[in-house]
Amino acid sequence: EAQLLESGGGLAQPGGSLRLSCAASKFTFSSYVMNWVRQAPGKGLEWVSGISGSGDDAYYADSVKGRFTISRDNSRNTLYLQMNSLRAEDTALYYCAMDVGGTRLYYSDSWGQGTLVTVSS
Amino acid sequence: EIVMTQSPATLSVSPGERATLSCRASQSIGGKLAWYQQRPGQSPRLLIFDASIRASGIPARFSGTGSGTEFSLTISSLQSEDFAVYYCQQYNNWPPLTFGGGTKVEIK
Questions:
Q1: pLDDT per residue of chain B (108 residues) written in tens, 0 to 9
Q2: Omega of the bond leading into B96 within 30 degrees of 0 (cis)
């Protein structure tokens, strides 16, 4: 069974930056699309970004486009989310999730435990 | 962007009873719909994909139906561990992938 472990969350000031990481194991990381999905406190799920298995194609929600950058290092089995120009509304638990697709986005059948990002002054 | 609307927001059901949750898409998504369960304090768990196919290890009491814009998830006989929040998600038109707002199934 796939294992995903997020890290890098914490407190950031508005306008600040954070870099999230997701260490993957027990599956062929480079074969799968990876997604970031967030959940604001007490709210529902919101897809943030996805990246193809090769890393050649990246996709973003409009709410983060131009501020967040998804990337992956297939040699290290690690997914990243660089978050810049953070806003209060970015406060959420960020999940790393393994998609079943390799190039296009489908649904996620493995999820990490999440890392909490809080944006506040 | 395809908007997913779930109803009701909260469903109160007694253990052993049947629960039916609804999910509507703002335009046709064919059968490209997934359902997830999220128990309190836990990560989401895939239940159903392609509208009606149970994911690995999911009990047969969970079933999904629908196509186009109207979908439903039925739990035939609620067990204590089934009280949770359920989300639908479309993957026909992306980006973005979009989720419904969720239905909380609570104990009556």
A1: 999 999 999 999 999 999 999 999 999 999 999 999 999 999 999 999 999 999 999 999 999 999 999 999 999 999 999 999 999 999 999 999 999 999 999 999
A2: yes
The DSSP bridge partners found for residue A67 are none
Q: Do A105 and B91 touch (CB under 8 A)?
A: yes
Half-sphere exposure of A113 (CA within 13 A, CB side): 6
CA distance B5 to A75: 40
**Tokens describing residue B26:** 């703002």
Determine whether the interchain pair A45/B34 forms a contact, defined as Cβ–Cβ distance below 8 Å: no
Tell me whether strands A108-111 and A45-51 are parallel, antiparallel or unpaired.
unpaired
* Option in A44, A62, A112 nearest B99 (CB): A44
Quote the DSSP letter at residue B92: S
**b or e along A87-115 (b: 16 or more beta carbons within 10 Å of the residue's beta carbon)?**
eeebbbbbbbbbbbbeeebbbbbbbbebb
Cβ–Cβ under 8 Å, residues A115 and A19: no
Distance from CA of B105 to the nearest CA of A (A): 14
- CA dist B19 and B30 (Å) reads 24
Q: Which residue has the tokens 């990381």?
A: A29
Q: Kindly determine whether residue A50 and residue B34, on different chains, have CB atoms separated by under 8 Å.
A: no
